[in-house]
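Model it.
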Amino acid sequence: MLSASLKPILWDGGREDERRGVASQPTKVSFRANQNRWIMETVDGASYRTVSAKLASAMLRWSGRVAVVTGASSGIGRSIAEELVKKGLQVVGLARRLDRLEELRDEVQNAPGKLYPIKCDITSEEDILAAFEWTKEHLNGVDILVNNAGVGTIQTLIENTTSELRKILDVNVLGLSICTREAVKSMRERGVDDGHIININR
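Modeled.
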């Protein structure tokens, strides 16, 4: 475990000695969205290589565990699913676009973990229940849930139709709640006390 406090910041490039982690200074962590990866600069004077080794070691306990990621066919959800598979997790990817999930599965087929694509509309309780039942039957249950699927609108409240508002609630609130309920049930049934549920806001 890392004893240093990690604080997310935006990195403006910095000096060469800062990039190498030579200077002893407060913790820096930056995120490049276009590369979908964390860049560790300095943790209380420790080098990037040292910190990376500790983080990699901390991830070993999750190898072989089961994660469900909603909205896994594109964007943030796709990146999360991909990285978890690369870390050795068994990932159940849920999305409406099965073809994109299958493309991702093929891309990570040589990774330590594995991706299981399942077509699932988060507005459909039937689809959600079927996905979690499949996970229980084939992978014994869920250890991690990433509620990534979500929709939004750029219109004002008075411009939105009732059907548009209902869709937002169905995905962002009801769908998320049903997934969370099923994940918690799965964890409790198996006595999992270190499970994680991650909600991504939009």
